[in-house]
């Protein structure tokens, strides 16, 4: 298995919980949930029993329905059916794809209280109404989101761990990498942007260095998402599909905001709120909302009527945007990598920064202010994050983040934003292809350091 940061989180859970909670691993389809937990079970426990509810036979379903009040028999029959011996406090039981049988999730309360074994669950589309209807969500269940590979994990997969360590060290000290390493890191980051972070795609690229082979994998994943929409979105299927199909087009615009009117003259945002939620809840997209009065609680001034909708994995966005024929040739990917053809890279660059910020635990917010009568007062800040500010004894402040896809750019919006909100503002970041520089409160970061924020 390729190295994942989430593995350490599982170790932390095992040590701290000591059987007092179960852990649910949520994430998009094909993001590597099952592989992660099964590898963890094999390495960290004497035995590991896996129940995949996508294929669980009637006999196993019957154990959950008929033996919930006879746990001795329940465990005895599970152990015999799967031919896995169970040892008290030394065995892990995994409920894989638990959304396919919600009653198993409900049983976690009783199983954790019994205390004999540890429990991990995995699930996609875990919160949709069909998968939580008529069950009591156990309070003994904790949850963790598994995202696609971030850039550091991508470097690990390509056996570039020393470069990943050098990048982290350079960010911590706010010193630029040597020019040769900067060029190498930028090249690999562009490869990461095109490949994305879905485990199967990363593994294939690490093995073959073929963009075309990776493109086939990503097309299969996008097809899987489309099938899930048709199967699970219910009455919102048409609206969810409409948003999914137009994400690339919406992000190709200058301001990146989703223009709901483009879906029809009489369309209103409130009619599509459930569709945006469905895609976000399925971990297919990352939503970013306008915070109209930025302070350390960005959510208080959240304006949900102004939204930017990013793909959760940029590699999937690239394939989504390029999929105008049955295949995308290797030559097209290579030309994009080497900047030989004109393409709107701004959409991919902003999307991948959104992806890295979200992976680091930041909720996504931006700031937008327009004045039709006085355009000089217009302000557009790509992202807002809350972070400790060195000049305020590390108290929390709002840090504006501007993303630039080229080395030539203006910082007029940052200047106006700082002037408007003054002491609310901490370090200002410009993320672009240039090397790291520090100018007072303004830090210019290379794109490959976005995941360090």
Can you characterise this structure?
With 453 residues, the protein is an alpha/beta fold. It has 18 helices and 13 strands. It has an 8-stranded mixed beta sheet. The longest helix has 22 residues. It is globular and about 75 Å long.
DSSP E strands, number: 13
Q: What gap, in angstroms, lies between the N and C termini?
A: 27 Å
The profile of the biggest β sheet is: 8 strands, mixed
Individual helix count: 18
Structure, briefly:
With 453 residues, the chain is an alpha/beta fold. The chain is built from 18 helices and 13 strands. The strands form two sheets. It has an eight-stranded mixed β-sheet. A five-stranded parallel β-sheet has the order 2-3-4-1-5, sandwiched between helices.
Please describe the topology of this protein.
Layout: H1 6-17, E1 22-26, H2 33-44, E2 47-52, H3 58-66, H4 71-82, E3 91-96, H5 102-106, H6 108-114, E4 118-123, H7 129-132, E5 141-145, H8 151-157, H9 161-173, H10 179-195, H11 199-208, H12 211-232, H13 237-251, H14 273-281, E6 285-291, E7 302-311, H15 314-322, H16 330-337, H17 345-359, E8 365-369, E9 379-389, E10 395-403, H18 412-421, E11 428-432, E12 437-439, E13 442-446
Parallel strand pairs: 1-4, 1-5, 2-3, 3-4, 6-8, 10-11, 11-13
Antiparallel strand pairs: 6-7, 8-9, 9-10, 12-13
Helix pairs in contact: 1-2, 10-15, 11-12, 12-13, 12-15, 13-14, 13-15
Label this structure with key terms.
453 residues; alpha/beta; 18 helices; single chain; globular
């Amino acid at each position: 298995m390729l190295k994942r940061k989430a593995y350490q989180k599982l170790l932390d859970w095992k040590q701290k919980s000591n059987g007092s909670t179960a852990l649910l691993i949520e994430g998009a389809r094909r993001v590597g949930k099952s592989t992660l937990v099964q590898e963890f079970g094999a390495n960290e426990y004497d035995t590991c029993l896996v129940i995949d509810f996508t294929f669980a036979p009637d006999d196993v379903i019957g154990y959950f329905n008929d033996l919930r009040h006879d746990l001795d028999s329940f465990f005895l029959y599970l152990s015999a059916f799967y031919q896995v011996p169970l040892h008290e406090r030394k065995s892990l039981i995994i409920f894989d794809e638990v959304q396919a049988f919600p009653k198993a999730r409900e049983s976690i309360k009783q199983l954790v209280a019994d205390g004999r074994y540890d429990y991990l669950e995995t699930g996609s589309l875990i919160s949709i109404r069909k998968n939580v209807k008529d069950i009591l969500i156990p309070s003994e269940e904790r949850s963790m989101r598994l995202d696609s590979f971030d850039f550091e994990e991508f470097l690990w997969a390509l056996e570039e761990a020393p470069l990943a360590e050098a990048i982290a060290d350079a960010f911590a000290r706010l010193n630029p990498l040597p020019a040769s390493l900067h060029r190498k890191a930028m090249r690999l980051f562009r490869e990461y942007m095109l490949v994305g972070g879905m485990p199967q795609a990363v593994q294939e690229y690490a093995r073959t260095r073929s963009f075309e082979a990776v493109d086939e994998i990503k097309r299969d994943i996008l097809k899987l998402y489309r099938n899930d929409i048709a199967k699970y979105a219910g009455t919102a299927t048409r609206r969810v599909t409409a948003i999914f199909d137009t994400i690339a087009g919406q992000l190709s615009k200058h301001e990146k905001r989703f223009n709901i009117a483009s879906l029809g003259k009489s369309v209103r945002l409130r009619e599509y709120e459930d569709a945006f939620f469905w895609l976000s809840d399925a971990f297919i997209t990352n939503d970013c909302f306008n915070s109209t009065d930025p302070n350390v609680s960005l959510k208080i001034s959240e304006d949900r009527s102004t939204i930017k909708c990013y793909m959760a994995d940029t590699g999937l966005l690239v394939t989504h945007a390029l999929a105008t024929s049955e295949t995308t040739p290797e030559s097209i990917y290579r030309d994009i990598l080497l900047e030989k053809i004109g393409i709107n890279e701004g959409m991919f660059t902003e999307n991948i920064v959104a992806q890295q910020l979200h992976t680091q635990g930041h909720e996504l917010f931006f700031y937008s202010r327009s004045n039709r009568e006085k355009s000089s007062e217009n302000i557009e800040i790509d992202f807002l994050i809350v972070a400790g500010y060195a000049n305020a004894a590390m108290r929390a402040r709002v840090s504006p983040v501007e993303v630039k896809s080229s080395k030539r750019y203006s910082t007029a919006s940052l200047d106006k934003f700082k002037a408007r909100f003054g002491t609310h503002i901490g370090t200002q970041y410009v993320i672009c292809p240039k090397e790291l520089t520090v100018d007072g409160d303004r830090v210019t970061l290379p794109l490959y350091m976005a995941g360090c924020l």
